[in-house]
């Protein structure tokens, strides 16, 4: 049996801001903003307070990413020793405190901005994140629990749960497929895995053009359909080419590239779901998060998955 690498670093050595950002997968947090906004604009009447819920989403998402690495610290010591905890750049105890603090802060922000409803929904979301990171991730239910996290993140921002359910499930379907793919990003897989994910992505793109409520105004309805179709095409253009390469060569490297691309593809998917409701300015804002995310990726080192 291969011995595990030593993990951790001396307590006196404090991690730098960039190392904490790497631990929390700062670029990936951009997609959490869009999740909550999909719920806000797809889920009934919009209030000013709902626009603060993306802050709670980002805090919970970042906390979950850090807790994920804390839970995987011994496995990563063998498989991904370059990550912040096994490399010794962020002590495991520090990572745990930061992650749990962010989860708690996300619940608090949701409660302060959206009352009891926000508090309860955020607590359920954070609890599901913890279950995924510490219990469910390596089980057959892991991908579905991860999808539940994403769908609950959408519902966090919703005024009406029934109205936001269809978009939440659309994002959840994408998440199931990508999470299944991510299980093979170290050792690779048979080509059937990325093939199946490619089919799922096509189905999600189709669903994005019909999911959610439509505006009553005919002009806004037509404009929303057109903008939604453009964003759905952007989603496919970002998600499918790396999957094609993974089908041709299903190595760990190719699959990891496909996972990264499909995580990034969530942003145009979110823009498509918002545009369909006729809220074109918020849809454009979410679409603009994609180039902003790319700027952060270029500035930060390390993994983004």
What does this entry look like structurally?
- This protein has twelve helices and no strands.
- 72% of the residues lie in helices and 0% in strands.
- It is mostly helical and 305 residues long.
**What oligomerization state is this entry in?**
single chain
DSSP strand content: under 5%
Radius of gyration: 19 Å
> How many E strands?
0
Backbone structural class = mainly alpha
The SSE string, one letter per element, is HHHHHHHHHHHH
Show unreliable segments. 1-12
Distance between the termini: 27 Å
Level of helix content?
over 70%
Largest sheet: none
- Number of helical stretches of at least 4 residues: 12
Give the averaged pLDDT, no decimals: 89
General form: globular
Could you name the key traits of this structure?
305 residues, mainly alpha, 72% helix
How is this fold's topology laid out?
Blueprint: H1 17-23, H2 30-42, H3 53-71, H4 73-79, H5 92-136, H6 142-156, H7 161-182, H8 192-208, H9 218-248, H10 252-264, H11 266-276, H12 280-299
Helix pairs in contact: 2-3, 2-6, 2-7, 2-11, 2-12, 3-5, 5-6, 6-7, 7-8, 7-10, 8-9, 9-10, 9-11, 11-12
Concise structural overview:
The chain is mainly α and 305 residues long.
């Amino acid at each position: 049996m291969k011995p595990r690498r030593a993990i951790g670093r001396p307590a006196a050595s404090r991690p730098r801001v960039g190392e904490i950002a790497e631990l929390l997968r700062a670029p990936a947090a951009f997609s959490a903003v869009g999740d909550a906004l999909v719920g806000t604009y797809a889920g009934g009447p919009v209030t000013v307070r709902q626009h603060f819920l993306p802050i709670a989403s980002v805090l919970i998402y970042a906390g979950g990413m850090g807790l994920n690495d804390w839970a995987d610290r011994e496995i990563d010591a063998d498989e991904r020793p370059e990550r912040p905890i096994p490399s010794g750049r962020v002590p495991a105890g520090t990572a745990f405190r930061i992650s749990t603090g962010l989860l708690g802060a996300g619940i608090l922000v949701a409660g302060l901005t959206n009352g009891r409803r926000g508090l309860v929904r955020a607590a359920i979301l954070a609890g599901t994140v913890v279950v995924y990171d510490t219990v469910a991730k390596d089980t057959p239910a892991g991908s579905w629990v991860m999808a539940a996290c994403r769908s609950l993140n959408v519902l966090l921002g919703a005024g009406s749960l029934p109205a936001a359910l269809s978009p939440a499930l659309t994002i959840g379907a994408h998440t199931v497929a990508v999470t299944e793919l991510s299980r093979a990003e170290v050792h690779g897989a048979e080509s059937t895995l990325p093939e199946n994910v490619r089919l799922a992505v096509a189905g999600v793109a189709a669903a994005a053009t019909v999911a959610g409520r439509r505006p009553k105004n005919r002009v806004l309805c037509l404009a929303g359909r057109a903008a939604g179709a453009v964003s759905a095409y952007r989603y496919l253009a970002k998600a499918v080419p790396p999957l094609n390469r993974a089908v041709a060569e299903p190595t760990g490297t190719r699959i990891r590239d496909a996972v990264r691309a499909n995580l990034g593809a969530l942003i145009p998917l979110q823009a498509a779901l918002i545009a369909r409701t006729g809220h074109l300015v918020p849809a454009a804002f979410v679409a603009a998060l994609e180039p902003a995310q790319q700027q952060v990726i270029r500035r930060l080192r390390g993994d983004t998955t």
